[in-house]
Amino acid sequence: MTAPPRDAERDPSARVYAPDFLTELFRNPLDPGYRDAAARRATGPVSRARQVLGRPVSLAVLAVIGFLFAVAYQETMAAEPSRATARAGLIAEIKQREAETDRLTSRAEQLREEVGRQRDAALGGSQASRLRDLEAGTGLGRVRGDGVVVRLADAPRDQDAVTGEDVAESQVLYSDLQKVANDLWAAGAEAVSINGQRLTATTTIRQAGEAILVDYRPVTSPYEVQAIGPGSMRDRFDDGRAAALMREVARTEGLSFGVKEVDDLTLPAAPEPRLRYAEPSVSPSPSGSPVVGSSSPGPSGSGVSPSPSGGGR
User: Fold this and answer.
1) Which domains, from first to last, does the chain contain?
2) Which InterPro entries does its entry note (predicted)?
């Protein structure tokens, strides 16, 4: 005895499908009642009033903002000539002071040479020769001889997209000059100068803002570190840490770094130092020994490196 056919098998159109609750929930998450209420509010008189009133308010706000920007631009442009004039005046004054400083430096060098000639004539041969050797060793006398020139320069400058000014991607740091100078001393240098500034036992290499100061005198890129010393100085410097570091920095950051041997270098004398001497205090200390004030010693022998390297890469 066979079972009677099911209704779905007799008539496929008679099948009944139950609704998928989860699919309907994600397809229409908003309840129909809330949806109808939102539609009525959107088409109601209050919404139309907001639309009608909102447009003039928006236009007024935009007009006020545009007016403020226009006023600010006009004020900036009005003040630009005065700022440009002040900047040009400062630049002119700086150049005038630099020219005056160069003139006085040249005059001081001439007077120093004249004093040296008069002194040598008064002292005699052996004493004058010994004094010249001491001056050369301490950096207070001009020296001449074969040596090495280390050249460092900032990376090529790119134009800033916002300000339009030229900016360097990578710059030589004061600590780079310190490391190079210290390694030249260690390699046997007898005299060192940076961009014509002679290094002595009391010379400092520091940074003030974006400027590098050598003994409180500004130097700019490219930097030439000149050193007079024995013939082996080039090889010993090349094997040092400073040369290896600067070659790596030049490869990765685009700086310029080079070392070459030069015959017959002439390094200028350093300015006369302003020495201070310690003096006993008038009143003794509680322990009975006099109190000695601080002092700044004068330059000692040659080959003494400048201030210790600090910071850097």
Assistant:
1) 124-267 (3.30.70.1880)
2) DUF881
